[in-house]
Fold this sequence. Notes:
Blueprint: H1 2-23, E1 31-33, E2 39-41, E3 49-55, H2 64-75, E4 80-86, H3 98-109, H4 128-137, E5 149-152, E6 158-162, H5 171-181
Parallel strand pairs: 3-4
Antiparallel strand pairs: 1-2, 3-5, 5-6
Amino acid sequence: MLKRSLFSLFALVMMMTIAPLARAATAYDFEFIGLDGAPLPLDQFKGKVVLAVNTASACGFTPQYDGLQALYDDYRDQGLVVLGIPSNDFGRQELLSAKGIKDFCEVNFNITFPMTDKTVVKGQSAHPFYQWAAAELGMMAKPRWNFHKYLIDREGKLVNWFASTTSPQSAKLKKAIEAALGL
């Protein structure tokens, strides 16, 4: 009887944890907080292709900001949105405040694409978008470091992921973006 009760309790906890993610059909079901403190719902990007990238200001991959901005500049008119999602989860490399992140990105990289406030992207406390992405694409698709990339198509479906080591200017990433844009 005790085993059955424990199993029932475990099943209930698992359902409560997974149920909100099961209701999420697309990336449009999620919302972040922007660097300005205002809600940043992903449904505002309906019909666009989104490259969601967890970033950090003091990482060896931080120079990728230049490539991300170049992608945004090159493909924005065709419907690409680059979304920067600062995180302090890997090596504590994002210690800045929202204002500090905004200033750092504007001064050092002339970033004009939208960015969220600092966000947890791994573990039990990961933002629901990241929990959903892992459930959709599998364990291997989870961010392992800063500048991990998720590609979301015009319908809000996750279509691919790219490791931190994949340069924003890589042929592989550009080809995937162009395919998602229908170019």
